[in-house]
């Protein structure tokens, strides 16, 4: 069932925003892994939890269906880094990719600058907090489209 949106702020346009995992009504920020100087493969994996606010992301409108908005997602401060899924089903930002992954936002509730939604990959798998993650949601845990705990997400438009 499609959820009516106010002011069409997401349709057919790109926007800046932040993503949060929702635990009931509490916003859990997303964060990126950072590694040492020579371990680039450990950088920019997307996880839920952590002490800092979610990074600003650029949501590129791609297309829509009656109950989904399809977007490509990039880091605002590293626009060449786009969100994709690893061979092991983890979400991370990859630099200089030829093909960009499309993600689906399934609206549950709209407000002036927020969208509460289910977040899915192109195959309609839910983005989840990985299985075996700490029960304390303030602790970081990777995001995956495989096994794990399903949550709702909140997109907060910042521009």
The helix tally amounts to 0
Secondary-structure-based class equals: mainly beta
Q: What characterizes the major β-sheet?
A: 6 strands, antiparallel, barrel
Low-confidence runs (pLDDT<50, min 5 residues)? none
The CATH first-level class comes to Mainly Beta
CATH architectural type: Trefoil
What would you say this structure looks like, in words?
With 159 residues, the protein is mainly beta. The chain has one domain: Trefoil (Trefoil (Acidic Fibroblast Growth Factor, subunit A)). It is built from no helices and 13 strands. The protein is globular.
Which helices and strands appear, and what pairs or packs with what?
Elements: E1 15-23, E2 26-32, E3 46-48, E4 57-65, E5 68-75, E6 81-85, E7 91-95, E8 103-110, E9 114-120, E10 128-130, E11 141-144, E12 148-150, E13 152-157
Antiparallel strand pairs: 1-2, 1-4, 1-13, 2-3, 3-11, 4-5, 5-8, 6-7, 8-9, 9-13, 10-11, 10-12
Please describe the structure with a list of short key phrases separated by commas or semicolons.
159 residues; Trefoil (Acidic Fibroblast Growth Factor, subunit A); six-stranded antiparallel barrel; two-stranded antiparallel sheet; 0% helix; globular
Quickly describe the structure.
The chain has 159 residues and is an all-beta fold.
């Amino acid at each position: 069932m499609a959820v009516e949106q106010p002011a069409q702020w997401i349709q057919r346009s790109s926007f800046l925003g932040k993503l949060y995992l929702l635990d009931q009504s509490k916003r859990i920020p997303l964060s990126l892994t950072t590694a040492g100087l020579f371990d680039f493969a450990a950088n920019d994996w997307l996880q839920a939890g952590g002490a800092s606010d979610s990074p600003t992301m650029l949501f590129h409108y791609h297309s829509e269906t009656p109950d989904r908005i399809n977007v490509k997602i990039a880091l605002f401060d590293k626009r060449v880094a786009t969100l994709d899924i690893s061979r092991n089903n983890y979400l991370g930002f990859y630099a200089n990719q030829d093909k960009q992954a499309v993600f689906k936002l399934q609206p549950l509730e709209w407000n002036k600058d927020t969208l509460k939604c289910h977040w899915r990959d192109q195959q309609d798998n839910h983005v989840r907090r990985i299985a075996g993650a700490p029960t304390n949601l303030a602790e970081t845990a990777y995001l995956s489209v495989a096994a794990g705990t399903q949550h709702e997400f909140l997109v907060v438009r910042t521009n």
